[in-house]
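During the second year of the project, the team shifted from modelling isolated chains to modelling whole assemblies. The rationale, set out in the original proposal, was that interfaces cannot be judged from single-chain predictions alone. As a representative example for this report, we include one of the complexes processed in the last quarter. Its constituent sequences, exactly as entered into the pipeline, are reproduced here:
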Amino acid sequence: MKQEILQQFDGYQDVMKEIEAARKFGTDYAGFKGRVAAWIDRYHPARLTLRIGDILEETASTRTLRLVAPDRPLPPFQAGQYLALALRFGQVRTGRPYSISSSPRNTGYYDITVRRVPDGLVSGHLLDHVRVGDALESAGPAGTFVHNPVFHGNALVYIAGGSGIAPFMSMIRETLDCGLDRDILLLYGNRAADDVIFHAELTRLASRFENFRYVPVLEERGALNPPWPCQKGYITRDLLREAVGDLTCRMFYMCGPAALYDFCRRELEALGVPPRRIRQEAYGPPNHISQYPGWPEAVTEDATFRVTVKGSAPIPAHAGETLLTALERGGFAVPSQCRSGECSLCRVRLVSGAVYQPPTVLLRAADRRFGYIHSCAAYPLEDLCVEV
Ligand SMILES: Cc1cc2nc3c(=O)[nH]c(=O)nc-3n(C[C@H](O)[C@H](O)[C@H](O)COP(=O)(O)OP(=O)(O)OC[C@H]3O[C@@H](n4cnc5c(N)ncnc54)[C@H](O)[C@@H]3O)c2cc1C
Ligand code: FES
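Output from the structure prediction step:
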């Protein structure tokens, strides 16, 4: 009876045919529910709980923290990427990115190599207070400072300064471990011989592999241990010309303090290297922002302004510190990752007031139009009102 009634409906036969075909040949996606999300989480987790598996002393001011994840597989990463650690100090929630220095081939751990910054909040904590077994929160590996074989070719020059060696160490280890077809020259600048991180491993690798050359560059005189030929002074155009030889078709990568970027980029451009052949990793907020082009002369770095987050009591902020730092100190949780004005995770809307933004900040046109700023790369120039 029911069947007879149903057959009266227009299109009933077609629908039945489709149901039959789906039963015979189709896939029941209900059975897959949650599986895609699980794979996405495996590759790109929003949060990772890592444990310190080991601590390796590198120099008097530098340690490598070996991070493991006892409860889950570690997401894969590309050599050159970083981990954005998330930390809490009392009411202050903050974060810092650290490049992974181990090879992506070691799938059981990530190494991060941390150098002490004088009075640095997080580097001081990681060097003085964390112990084997402690937990650290992080986002999954991120960043675009990676080798692209199609666009970058195989002839690579790495220019590193201080702890800026970390992403290169990952790239060098991967290339040599996996026998990749790449020719690498590393120019590695440091103040003194004792500051050189990974020196013993770099000399060992350079002695063993023909496709890897290592040139340490020291500002001060001093003996390297183990002994290795080194250059004195800075990574100048003369040194680049001599060490690199034919500069055409080489890809130059830079990682280190802002001063190294400014200096070495000028030297490379003077040698005729086009900007498209120079890649640089972000390395956090610049020191002495008031020396950047366009900073208003009338404002000193220690000038203090009031920042009001819509609906809350004002908090103090110095002109010489990023708006993100001031907001975190005021107890606001602002998501962040690169802390260098690139990833746009720390966007806030500037309702009123003026900020200084260094020329390197990567703001989308729509953000400019609608008043959004990257709080990690914005410095208060007057009292501000923002929406977080
Ligand atoms: C993509 C990326 C990767 C990074 N990878 C590494 C890494 O592998 N190893 C590593 O040691 N660091 C790395 N850094 C830097 C790191 O994220 C922190 O900025 C650094 O550890 C300082 O943090 P802090 O909390 O100790 O200092 P803060 O408390 O933030 O700063 C204290 C004072 O030091 C100044 N300052 C901040 N950073 C530096 C700096 N790098 N050099 C000199 N002065 C500074 C500040 O202006 C401030 O006056 C990376 C940064 C980025 C953006
Ligand atoms: S944290 Fe990446 S742009 Fe600010």
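The domain at 149-280 is CATH 3.40.50.80 (Rossmann fold). Residues 82, 96-99, 112-115, 117, 119-124, 143, 163, 166, 257, 281-284, 287, 338-340 surround flavin-adenine dinucleotide (ligand 1) (CB under 6 Å).
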